[in-house]
Automatic annotation (TrEMBL):
Entries under Pfam families matching the protein: PAD_porph
Gene3D superfamilies linked: L-arginine/glycine Amidinotransferase, Chain A
Annotated InterPro entries: Agmatine_deiminase, Peptidyl-Arg-deiminase_porph
Any GO MF annotation of the entry: agmatine deiminase activity
GO biological process, alphabetically ordered: putrescine biosynthetic process
Species for this entry: Lactuca sativa (Garden lettuce)
Signal peptide annotation: none
Superkingdom of origin organism: Eukaryota
Keywords: Hydrolase
Protein name, per record: Agmatine deiminase
């Protein structure tokens, strides 16, 4: 189902905040051996753990390739739907659709629709994470078709992990990602802002200069760096260690946020969420990747882009990564519990495994909003 004419905002749609009610969550199923060590065994185990945790709060659909469907079905709880779908990798935050809602008055007659962004594997043939993303280009379209939800095709290259909204007109993003020449070099900052406003239904874009230090795969996605707790309140990936290369980025972002207001004129309350580690890829972990020459190599000693900001908000819960850091794991749970007093914080131990592949819990999930009628 396509809406060929116009933009979501013209039809009365906006991207809802992640804390607004979901009808379900979508995940892919990891398998590529050059990005998931030991043929995906560990990655699949942690994806199953995340899907199971989410399924306690809301319906979950996991999409797996034909060769992996039975394996996924065996590993996942019975209340999780498993659908067959081809994909190049399993980062549904970025290859899946961005869902938008209208307050029941859209000219299309629907109150949930999806944006099908263009995708180039986080940087194209020269700079992306792998060189064939032909299956990923169809993921959003397939999901929207399965759900019989109208689709807004969009030609600009954009990943869902590069944007975060408060549902009331404000969008957070980073210049490091959206202004990177490996995405949309023909567009100015103002032109990108115009597209975000027309498709997300937002009125104001807050540009942080850079994302998390070491988040090179995505060129600094916002969902590793900063996110909304509610309108006017944000969580920021932080470190007090001035010698840590992330410190400069954190202070830079704090300064921008401190001097900004949201679309409704609120000054931001900034909650600092300390990063773990630093964590580095071990020799053993790096040895588990089977390099076939198509994906970015995973090298021992690489600093991992680990951030507690990369959690996922579900109906009534927070699905939170834990990295095996005895100090900062507990601190993150404390901060998140205080920031979201009405939600149950569920700890996912072993989230380091997702970081080895280049992201975390928020990166592998995609929420489908319930729409106003719920």
């Amino acid at each position: 189902m396509d809406i060929a004419e116009g933009t979501p905002a013209l039809h009365g749609f906006r991207m809802p905040a992640e804390w607004e009610p979901h009808s379900q969550t979508w995940l892919g199923w990891p398998e590529r051996p050059d990005n998931w060590r030991d043929n995906g065994v560990y990655g699949q185990s942690i994806f199953a753990k995340v899907a199971s945790a989410i399924s306690k709060f809301e319906p979950v659909t996991v999409c797996a390739s034909a060769s992996q469907w039975a394996n996924a079905r065996d590993q996942l709880p019975h209340n999780v739907r498993v659908a067959e779908m081809s994909m190049n990798d399993s980062w549904f935050r970025d290859s899946g659709p961005t869902f938008v809602v209208s307050e029941g008055k859209s000219s299309s007659g629907h109150n949930v629709a999806g944006i099908d962004w263009n995708f180039n594997s986080w940087g194209g043939v020269d700079d992306g994470c792998y060189i064939d993303w032909s299956h990923d280009l169809l993921v959003a379209r397939k999901i929207l078709s399965m759900e019989r939800i109208p689709r807004f095709p969009q030609s600009i290259i954009l990943e869902g992990g590069s944007i975060h909204v408060d549902g009331e007109g404000t969008c957070l993003t980073t210049e490091e990602c959206l202004l990177n020449k490996n995405r949309n070099p023909h567009l100015t900052k103002e032109q990108i802002e115009d597209e975000l406003k027309a498709y997300l239904g937002v009125k104001k874009i807050i540009w942080l200069p850079r994302g998390l230090f070491g988040d090179d795969d995505t060129n600094g996605h916002i969902d590793n760096m900063c996110c909304f707790v509610k309108p006017g309140v944000v969580l920021l990936s932080w470190t007090d260690e001035e010698s840590d290369p992330h410190y400069e980025r954190a202070v830079e972002a704090f300064t921008v946020l401190s001097n900004s207001t949201d679309a409704n004129g609120r000054k931001f309350e900034i909650i600092k969420l300390h990063i773990p580690g630093p964590l580095y890829m071990t020799d053993e972990e790096a040895a588990g990747f089977i390099q076939v020459g198509e994906a970015k190599p995973r090298l021992p000693g690489t600093r991992l882009a680990a951030s507690y900001v990369n959690f996922y908000i579900v109906n009534g819960g927070i699905i939170a990564p834990q990295f095996g850091d005895p100090k900062w794991d507990d601190e993150a749970v404390r901060v998140l519990s205080k920031a979201f007093p009405d939600r149950q914080v569920v700890k996912i131990d072993g989230a380091r495994e997702i970081v080895l592949g280049g992201g975390n819990i928020h990166c592998i999930t995609q929420q489908q909003p319930a729409g106003p009628q719920a």
